[in-house]
Prior knowledge:
The chain has 128 residues and is mostly helical.
Amino acid sequence: MKNLLxxxxxxxGTPFRGFGKLGLEGESGEGAIDTFAKFISSAIxxxxxxxxxxxxxxxxxGAMGMMSAGGDKAALExxxxxxxxxxxxxxVVILGIFIVDLVGTLIGIPVLNLEELFSLIQINQPSx
Length: 128
């Protein structure tokens, strides 16, 4: 039998445990894939919300810059570029999610549906 690196015990004695709900303390690990999928889904949703809040902040900052430009063309142009950059960033974030989903649909891999993706992956445990 080959002694692979992945079969080597790294932590002797007590096994390495995570923290919180992701640590799955006291559980057999049956729901680990579901917990991981929910974590990634929540992270993607949270980052999208952060991007939207950032866009609103940049939009208001650009609008305040336009109002306070006072006829200064350089300040007006800077504010316009700020608003444009914020809008482009928001579009990139939202389109990124749709593009990843589209590519996954075209190649037949449910990239954003992690529960289905992990069910497609066969995990073979080594025989002892």
